[in-house]
Amino acid sequence: MPDKRNALVNSLLLALLMISTLTSLSTGTVQVSLADTLAALLGQADPMTDFVINELRLNRVVAGLLCGAALALAGCLMQTLARNRLATPGIIGIDNAATAFAVASVVGIGLSLAPSAMALAGAATATALAFGLAGAKGTRGYRFIVAGIGIGAIAAAITQVMLSRVAIDDANAAYPWTVGSLNARNPESVKVLAAGLALGYLVLMAITRALNTLQFADAVAIALGTRLKATRILGLGLSVLLTGLAVSVCGPVGLVSLLAPELARALSRPGKIPLTASALAGASFLVVADLLGRSLFSPLEVPAGIISAIVGSPYLLWILLRPTPRSLT
Predict the structure, then answer these.
(1) CATH topology for 4-321?
(2) What start and end residues bound the annotated signal peptide (predicted)?
(3) What residues have CB less than 8 Å from 286, skipping those under 6 apart?
């Protein structure tokens, strides 16, 4: 039987996403009406409007949509696997490690792989280290989170050391990966992210039932026919893939992976992992954060990563200070 509440939530979040996208495309130093924006997207606008929408803004907005969705899905997955609201890629250090590796490829320290490949390598390295340091508990418990926080701090320090030892031009080229920015993103990296996100989402839809059983005790999940080890390994791998590809495009905007799943979980029916709702919420959140960063202090631009941190940090503190955090379900 269809879940009417989740369908309604997804429809509302999709509508919000469309509004956010069109607003971001039409807003900037050059204001474009909604009608002209739609005409440009359909290839029916004048050359100037077409240039502003399709050449200057569209790739940036698409990058925000894809990065937000990927980070939110990765956060929802990691929270489900760890059964902990704090277990997101940004908090356990995956973002920072992916950023460090991506920066290493940009500043030219002998690692010539593309930022996408390097970011994936960094995300995988951080996950493996955190998993190993957590010991027998794997992704469960606070030991995994504490290990990840330590790894993230080390990765952030390494990034700063690399930036301090290279020429100013190289440091400026790598700067967007340290703060989280959608400005002038590489179209090829965006295409790779789009392919990875599509693949990851299809796989997640195929294993949704198994992921839902992870909310129960292991014995119950096994009794329901879930292959726990395979599901956890696949989920962890998808989280690394999505995080690495997203960071290779926009840098560390980690709090998206915390806020978007929380919003989706609050709106959706309890007992289900809100994967689609998380992706839609994450995409909207990052597009709006980028829009605010471009608009609030124009002509100065505040990176989307800083805007998301300003919005998300108080909520993170609220989670930490609550005496009895509510269940993920």
Answers:
(1) ABC transporter involved in vitamin B12 uptake, BtuC (1.10.3470)
(2) 1-26
(3) 64, 65, 67, 68, 71, 182, 250, 253, 256, 304, 308
The residue behind tokens 């971001």 is 24
**Torsion of the alpha carbons at 56, 57, 59 and 62, rounded to the nearest 10:** 180
Q: Give the CA distances from residue 298 to residues 15, 190, 291, in Å, rounded to whole numbers and listed in that order.
A: 27, 26, 11
Query: With 0-12 CB in 10 A as exposed, 13-18 as middle and 19+ as buried, what is 324?
Result: exposed
Rounded to whole angstroms, how far apart are CA atoms 277 and 260? Answer: 8
Report the distance separating Cα 157 and Cα 55, nearest Å.
Answer: 36
- C-alpha 224, offset from chain centre: 31
Query: Per residue in 49-100, pLDDT tens?
Result: 989 898 889 999 999 999 999 999 999 998 888 888 878 888 888 888 888 8
Could you tell me the two tokens for 255? 């709090």
Q: Is this structure's pTM higher than 0.70?
A: yes
Tokens standing for 43?
Answer: 């290839």
- Selection from 21, 91, 111, 69 nearest residue 246 by Cα: 69
